[in-house]
Specification:
This protein is an alpha/beta fold. Helices cover about 50% and strands about 10% of the residues. The protein has 2 domains: about 270 residues, no CATH class; about 90 residues, Winged helix-like DNA-binding domain superfamily/Winged helix DNA-binding domain (Arc Repressor Mutant, subunit A), CATH 1.10.10. β7 and β8 form a beta hairpin. The mean pLDDT is about 90.
Length: about 375
């Protein structure tokens, strides 16, 4: 994914926490706890103490935060009349949400069900009969509850907007106020750190410190975010917004909706590996492991070091064939080699394989 920032002045890059964005991430973690194993204790505690009526309401519109969280949780990026910063309090952020037009609100709410145009201008579901039909059809496929909510959203946006605000205020009272009180100082400190880094060492250094998956090209005109999806946007009103989250790992999200201010929403809870693999490297590794002979080689090399000659004997293949398969595994960064006298020993990098998935590693070691 990329953001065109040509002409962006350093003072127009803001790093600011957002209570509403953090509440959106809290709702996401409660709905998809498997995404956030580090929050398991917190999720269990909140879920156990949740009022049943509030829990039912949380399910009613969970498509706004289950897949990821909707752009509605970053309304500062879409406020008509120019870019705005997140509110200092949840109430201020909710006031910004109220400033979005009905068309903006509905289109953002239907992002995950209607597949509306995201990076290009297009008609609103409120004005286009075909989009309304498609939204209802896709909502029906996801269940009667989502269909009812989508119908109400399309028929009476102000009613749903009031419902959502009240629901978010009730979540704040039930559990989020305590979470925000605990996290806001950490997030503010991180924002100050990134801002100081940008001021003294430049935007490229600040972006890399946010995540090794974010890079700035040599000309300083384009930010690239290494993700398994495609997207492109251009800075709106010459501004870029970075928002830290304490609950968001491992999600690094990019708001790139057409006409909205670009936003990087990044986790700050723990340090990343020094050099996480790129998406291209992950594809290379998965491709290398897709061959059955290489799977067998990995099984041997996970247990001990072997020479090429030993692997030839074990697998009944020629030396060039074994060398070709070993070369693919080495290129993918899954096998290491070391020399012992006149012998070259090969071994599986178990740590690299473990990062691809514990089930696969357990199968190799079984």
């Amino acid at each position: 994914m990329s953001i065109d920032i040509a002409g962006l002045r350093p003072e127009r890059v803001a790093v600011v926490p957002s209570p509403l964005a953090e509440l959106g991430m809290a709702l996401h973690a409660l709905s998809e706890p498997a995404h956030h194993p580090g929050l398991q204790g917190w999720v269990t505690s909140v879920t156990a103490g949740l009022d049943p009526h509030l829990a039912d309401r949380m399910c009613e519109a969970d498509f706004l935060w289950r897949t990821t969280f909707s752009d509605l949780f970053l309304p500062c990026a879409g406020v008509p009349g120019g870019p705005a910063l997140p509110g200092a309090s949840l109430a201020e952020d909710l006031d910004l949400l109220d400033k979005l037009t009905d068309e903006q609100f509905v289109d953002a709410a239907l992002e995950f069900t209607c597949a509306l145009p995201y990076t290009t201008p297009g008609p609103s579901a409120l004005a286009d009969a075909e989009l309304r039909r498609r939204a209802l059809e896709l909502a029906a496929a996801r269940g009667p509850q989502q269909l009812r909510f989508t119908k109400r959203l399309l028929e009476d946006p102000p009613r749903i907007r009031a419902w959502l605000r009240r629901f978010l205020e009730d979540c704040d009272e039930a559990f989020f106020a305590d979470v925000w009180d605990r996290l806001r100082h950490q997030l503010a400190a991180d924002a100050r750190h990134r801002t100081d880094l940008m001021r003294h060492k430049g935007l490229a250094e600040a972006l890399t410190s946010v995540s090794a998956a974010i890079t700035l090209d040599e000309d300083g005109d384009r930010i690239t975010i290494d993700k398994l999806r495609q997207g492109h946007t251009v800075i709106r009103d010459r501004s870029l917004l970075l928002i830290p989250t304490g609950l968001g790992r491992p999600h690094l999200m990019v708001l790139h909706r057409h006409g909205w201010q670009p936003v990087l929403h990044y986790p700050v809870t723990s340090a990343e590996p020094a050099a996480p693999p790129s998406v291209d490297q992950l594809v290379l590794r998965m491709t290398a492991l897709s061959h059955p002979v290489r799977m067998q080689l990995c099984r041997n090399l996970a247990r001990s070091t072997y020479t090429t000659g030993e692997l030839v004997q074990i697998h009944g293949m020629t030396a060039p064939e074994i060398s070709r398969h070993l070369g693919a595994l080495k290129k993918a960064g899954l096998v290491t080699t070391r020399r012992r006298g006149r012998y070259v020993l090969h071994q599986l990098d178990v740590a690299a394989v473990a990062r691809l998935g514990s089930d696969f590693l357990e199968a190799l070691l079984r």
